[in-house]
Design goal:
Layout lengths: L2 E4 L1 E4 L2 E9 L16 H24 L7 H14 L5 H11 L3 H17 L4 H4 L2 H16 L14 E5 L8 H4 L6 E3 L7 H9 L3 E3 L4 H4 L5 E5 L4 E4 L3 H22 L15 E6 L5 H6 L5 E5 L1 H4 L9 H14 L5 E4 L32 H6 L1 H14 L5 E5 L5 H20 L7 E7 L2 H5 L1 H7 L2 E4 L1 H9 L17 H16 L1 H4 L4 E4 L10 H6 L4 E4 L4 H10 L2 H12 L4 H12 L1
Parallel strand pairs: 3-4, 4-5, 5-6, 9-10, 9-16, 10-11, 11-12, 12-13, 13-14, 14-15
Antiparallel strand pairs: 1-8, 2-6, 3-7, 7-8
Helix pairs in contact: 1-2, 1-3, 1-6, 2-6, 3-4, 4-6, 13-15, 15-16, 24-25
């Protein structure tokens, strides 16, 4: 009988093949004490493992083909940087020297310490950066054992799928080379680096399947349904035939979607819709342009600061990155969010507790995002100066995250004016910028009448808005099922925000540009609802853009508007579902 397992769909499509298992190196780690006087020899084993892994990563980077996703090289750089990070290199050696742990035990002990700080983070994207540390430790353990890389080869001429506890983005080179058709992992989420690379390579993938690497056996036939997060082990011939048809249909649909890349995003009733891309790295601009994005709706600058506690990026480094994005987009608008980091997303090595551990009682509600920036004005102005300088090279918008208080608004503009004055005093060219507020907390929606007086545009971060509205942590499995972007309260807040931005025309002389940059924007099943609520600007991962564009081209906003209002009027699940069905029809 076929075994069905469910996880998180992170990259669309269907893959069918024989399973190749990659067991976690941490599952079979020896624990013993080294003899006194042999500590430095054991530390030398760690150094040799780091050197071997560094050589492996350099070789992988050198072998990247010209058409490899830009994310691949950047993630390899992250892993190379992590190899020498003091939290791994120095502290692991300390476990050996102080407690005489063997090298493998020391690595896993230090990983547990680092993992705890990541688990306390509220932001899903940064919380999943723990996977990068785990993947580096896995590589080091394999180097200590004398085995590196992914399994390869073919299985009786059949397609192969990989089943693993986790997969490092660098190892996914073998997907590019056509060895594996898809993958399944025990852990991971939509914003893990592995998921990002999977989407950029357009490989069917399901993550977070928990026991997959334990339940699936080598050479089992496996179906990966990347559209629905379903993994089927040992399917019947009828199921295989059905999925082969779906696979064929899916491939044809993708080819048809590619034909829409240069088609203007305009609805049936002539409404122009702006489709923008979210990026994490400057190199992601290539994928954004390849999808036909009209610009960048969200550039998350946190990536520039990660693992940089003692050596934060200076003004020139930030300027080079921001200017690179602006120039790469060739005159298209670029929205860059100021650093969204803080107590729940600490720079490595920061903290109030012992050994750098964070001791805030509730980091999700602590010193983060704009609160963190305003608590360190000098650091904030470094970023603002870099942004103002980059704005001289093309259209640039500055997006301020997690605003809720009027004093935060005023302090932000004060720091921006100070940064502008500092540049002018130094004779440095400054470009014009639009400044926007990110709506992520219900209080910000209630503050919109004030925000609209000062800000040039509004961007709705639906991921945090859903969490803060419903008091749901998506990482907490006991309540994750309550995370609902279609909750009536969430839809009411979305509708109010969009409506107030449009209504600003009455007293401001123009409507305030409003977009959605969270997961809801990239979900084609929600496109018609958002259009019906009046949204005309969506920002999403580049891989999602063409699917959303297809929905836009099929939509009639005049017909959708009353249907969307009918959805807003329903508070019970069944009536709301009927209203949504009418909207989809």
């Amino acid at each position: 009988m076929a075994l069905q397992m469910f996880g998180i769909p992170v990259s669309r499509g269907v893959a069918i093949g024989r399973a190749v298992l990659m067991s976690s190196a941490r599952l079979d780690v020896a624990h013993y004490f080294v003899e006194r006087g042999r500590e430095e020899a054991e530390v030398d084993r760690l150094r040799a493992a780091r050197a071997a892994v560094r050589s492996e990563l350099q070789a992988l980077q050198a072998e990247l083909p010209a058409d490899a996703p830009a994310e691949m090289a950047a993630f390899i750089d992250v892993h190379k940087m992590l190899l020498d990070d003091p939290q791994i290199a120095r502290e692991t050696a300390n476990w050996v020297r102080r407690r005489r742990y063997n090298a493998e035990w020391a690595l896993t002990a230090q990983l547990d310490v680092i993992a705890r700080s990541f688990d306390e983070m509220d932001d899903a994207y940064l919380r999943e950066r723990k996977a990068d540390v785990e993947q580096v430790v896995e590589r080091l353990l394999r180097a200590l054992r004398g085995t590196q890389g992914l399994p390869g080869g073919t299985q009786n001429g059949e397609d192969l799928v990989l089943v693993a506890h986790d997969i490092a983005p660098a190892d996914m080179m073998q997907f590019k080379q056509g060895v594996f058709r898809g993958f399944v992992t025990d852990i991971g989420g939509k914003t893990s680096h592995t998921a990002i690379v999977a989407r950029s390579l357009d490989i069917p993938a399901v993550v977070g399947v928990r026991e997959a690497s334990r339940l699936v056996r080598h050479d089992d036939r496996v179906i990966i349904d990347g559209d629905h997060g379903l993994v089927i082990v040992d399917p019947s011939p009828a199921i295989v035939e059905d999925y082969l048809r779906r696979k064929h249909d899916s491939e044809q649909s993708r080819q048809r979607l590619q034909q829409l890349r240069d088609t203007p995003a305009r609805t049936l009733d002539g409404q122009q819709v702006e489709l923008l891309a979210n990026i994490e790295l400057p190199e992601d601009c290539r994928a954004a342009l390849g999808s036909g994005a009209a610009g960048i709706g969200l550039f998350r600058t946190e990536f520039l600061f990660m693992k940089r506690a003692r050596d934060l990026p200076d003004e020139q480094e930030q300027f080079d990155a921001y200017r690179g994005v602006v120039q790469a987009m060739g005159g298209r608008p670029v929205t860059i969010r100021t650093i969204d980091i803080g107590a729940d997303k600490p720079f490595d090595g920061e903290g109030d507790g012992r050994d750098g551990e964070i001791t805030h009682l509730n980091p999700a509600l602590g010193l983060r995002a704009i609160r963190y920036s305003l608590s360190d004005p000098a650091m904030f102005r470094v970023q603002l100066r870099a942004l103002l300088r980059a704005a001289a090279f093309g259209p640039l918008r500055i997006l301020v995250p997690m605003l809720a208080h009027s004093r935060e608004l005023h302090q932000t503009f004060e720091q921006l004016e100070l940064a502008r004055a500092e540049l002018r005093a130094a004779g440095t060219e400054v470009g014009p910028v639009e400044v926007g507020a990110m709506i992520e907390v219900p209080g910000a929606v209630l503050m919109l009448p004030l925000f609209l007086r000062y800000f040039d545009f509004i961007s709705i971060g639906t991921n945090d808005l859903v969490q803060y509205t419903l008091a749901i942590d998506r990482a907490d499995e006991s309540v994750a099922d309550l995370y609902d972007p279609l909750h009536p309260a969430v839809l009411q807040l979305l509708s109010q925000t969009i409506a107030q931005c449009h209504a600003a025309r009455q007293w401001k002389g123009r409507a305030v540009h409003v977009s959605v940059c969270g997961e809801m924007a990239g979900d084609p099943q929600l496109t018609r609802l958002l259009l019906g609520l009046g949204l005309r600007s969506f920002s999403m991962h580049p891989a999602q853009l063409l699917s959303v564009k297809q929905e836009v081209l099929r939509a009639d906003c005049a017909r959708l508007a009353p249907l969307a209002q009918a959805v807003l009027a329903e508070f019970e699940p069944q009536p709301q579902a009927r209203a949504l069905a009418a909207l989809a029809g």
